[in-house]
Amino acid sequence: MKIRVNGEEKEVRLNINVYDLLIALELDPVQAGIAVAVGREVIPKAKWQATELRENSEVEIIRAVQGG
Amino acid sequence: MQAFKIADQTYTSRLLIGTAGYPNFHIMSESIAASGAEIATVSMRRVKWTDTSGENLFALLRERGMTILPNTAGCFTAKDAILTANLAREALETVLIKLEVIGDDQTLFPDVEQLLSAAETLVKDGFTVLPYCNDDPITCKKLEDLGCAAVMPLGAPIGSGMGIRNPYNIQIIRDLVQVPLIVDAGVGTASDAAIAMELGCDGVLLNTAVAKAHRPVLMAEAMKKAVEAGRAAFLAGRIPRKLYATASSPQTGMIE
After folding, report:
1. Which domain CATH number covers A12?
2. With contact defined as beta carbons under 8 Å apart, do B143 and B116 qualify?
């Protein structure tokens, strides 16, 4: 199915959960410092495995960068 | 000397430093160390798949035991700022948030209406809110009344290096609010930071003045000293200004 991650279209397996999406994107899910929102709703780390994505889900994956 | 406290956490340094715009990661790291700051600001942005630099800002700041203060820079609405704050809380495991709600791209002045609305929501949601705001005593008072942990009026527009453009307002804000008062934005050089502290501010938050200095590490050191000197001068109490001279050497026992 198609979803959007950080504004980019990605092809992922059906109903993939947030945790597996991070692994598929080669992001280490246990590393500290990243957060995920699906459809503008923040998904706490504890719910990453239980949160399945749907066709056209809008996912944001963010981290701290240099800022003032 | 009275301790500098934000939300029950005591700090030795009264300088808060930004992490953006340095020539490179190494100079940033050295500048932060030279500044003596214990609080550093970061922004929240999308993860880039192509980033292979291995430079992990979060890891560096955490390793040094620094307080990480995420900002909501780039947000133009309360709604976006609230989402960014929630993402920051989740990513960085902190309830601290430097709340910025910008009204206009050119001036980067805060949108007061959106700022107050976001501050109210975030305080209710358990955040420790440090709002970047105008040097307007009434707005600062309102932010304090909403439960913000500090107020952070600008000295001048972000990155302008124009210094403290309205010291009288900063003085009035000092009289009006009990929460920590931190000048955020506008500082261009060490004397600006010293002036902010001499006015009775509890701290100074700056970034560009160090990051874009010809020698950032040396400027970071200068800022550290300026904040300390300004604080000491405030506590010591300056003499009143007078138009005419008063001799400091004895007037008696002169040779005749």
Report:
1. 3.10.20.30
2. yes
